[in-house]
Structure formats: structure tokens, C-alpha cells
Amino acid sequence: MQYTSVTPCHTYFHYIPNNFSSKHSLHFKKTLVTYTHSCHQEQEKHNNNSEKTDKQKDVYWQEMNFSVEKEKPHYRNDAKEQGGEVIARSGIRSNSWWARIKAALGQRINMEGISFSVGIFCTDKHLAIPHVFVPDISYIDWHELKKRGIEGVVFDKDNTITVPYSLNLWSPLASSMEQCKSLFGNNIAVFSNSAGLAEYDLDGRKARILERAIGIKVIRHRLKKPAGTAEEIERQFGCKSSRLIMVGDRPFTDIVYGNRNGFLTILTAPLSLSQEPFIVKQVRKLEMALVNRWSSKGIKPISHWLLPDCRHCIKDELL
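Given the sequence above, the corresponding C-alpha cells read:
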């Protein structure tokens, strides 16, 4: 854990206006019923045929029984194979279903965040307080941050630069993102609890799609924010985290992670609440209520040595 300073400073808050049965199993049952009905019709036709003699009947039934006994092992094997296939495929479906449920719940309920919250409630409230709060990244003065010694920018994804679950940049932010790229070059990355996180993006597919869409690196990692250190990020940028910005929309994940590791932290308002899960909305409300309460009681964020006055982060025309 890195701290650049323990001197508190004021957060600059910019005003925001109010505004499943298996198909194979089902098919097997239907076939079995059809076969049984066909045999029943044959038996009725045979019993009603008065021209047949008892001997012919005996021969008929012997042949039929022989045929059935001969086919039983094959039938049993086929049924066993089909049953095994159904079980196997059902197992795959079940595993896939459970993985999707687990991922969905995991993205909504951040256990790492909950565990860190205990410490925040007790002694580390200042870790949830951002250095700067803006409506979105277009309010950030990238030129001023570059001039003051910031060497790179780390973005959260969902509701910071994309709407929830999207893998494309939110179009109104395109101009600001291009300005950021022009100043920091390759020293821009996404560090997300969805795309790039091993638990939910094991093969990195989401990360690759996002990289192609927005043109910046997505850092692969194993621990969900706010847990973990800044080692992966520092390796990516080749500098200390104290010279980097962490931009995100969640106080108890993005901001706590950033402050724990010495970043300059910028909190943005969420881009879209309409696509956000109900649980996340409620947690967000609680987080912001606590941050506002703690701020009103005079709790300050950790001072950042490169930017003592956080108002310099904001574009003049938006002040």
C-alpha cells in the first residue's frame, strides 16, 4: 500500500443537476411412446385376425420374442448411451448456467468491496473520498494534469467510459478521450472489474473487443477492486502509481482502490442508471450517501503531492 502523504485536502465537487428439461430427453420419451403405440396396434390386428391358427400364433410369438430378446442388449446399450449423452449434455448446460449466474451475481455483489468496507466504516473513511468529483470525463482538464506531472490515466469501464455491459465507448466522451490520448499517448488503460478480470473474462475476449473499440489497453488482473496492489498497473505504465490518475464511478471500489495505492482519484457520475441492476443502484445510493455525509463532517481525502488544489483538474469554462 502506498501513500504519498497523509495531509488531508479538500475534495472539489463539481455541481451535477438532478436529473431450462433437456430436449434430448423429451425427444426420447416421445419416440418411446410412439413405438409402444405401434406395437399395441400390431397386437390388436393380430388378435382380431381369425384366419390365423394357434400354431401360426405360437410361431409368430416365438419369432417376436426371439426378435425382442435379440434386440434387448442393443436397446439397453443404446438407451444407456443416449442417457449418458443426455446427462453429459445436461451437465454441460448446468455448468454453463451456473457459471453465468455466478458471474452475474459476482458482478453485482463485490465481496472484496464488502470486506474492505468494514475497515472504511471504522477507521478509513477518508479512502472513499475522491480528490475530484465531476459529471463525466469531459469536465477533466487533461492539459493541466499533464503539465503538473501526471504521466498516465487509468479508467474504470462500466458507467465511466461505457454504459453498463457495453464494450464501446460512450459517444459523447469521444472528444475528451481523444484529447487524453493525444497528451498521454499509450499511457492510458482500462482497469475494470468486468473486462480483463480473470474471474469473468478468463480468455480475455471482452478485453480484446474493448481494446479494438476504444483503442486503449485493457489491463488483465485477478483481484477485484478495491483489493489488490498497483503492481500490474505500474508495470504497464513504467512509473509509480502516484503519477497516475484513477478515474471511476464507484467510491467504494474505484476510489478506495485508487486512494489505497496513491493515485490521484477522480469520481464521475454514472453515465446511465437505466441499464444498471437494481442491487447496484441501491449500493450506489448508499455509497454516495455515506461519502456526502463524511465530507460534510469534514473528512478529507489524502492529499496528492502533484495537485494540492484539486480545482486545477477542472476546465475553466465548467467551473
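Residues 168 and 213 are 6 Å apart (CA to CA). Try to locate this feature in the C-alpha cell string yourself.
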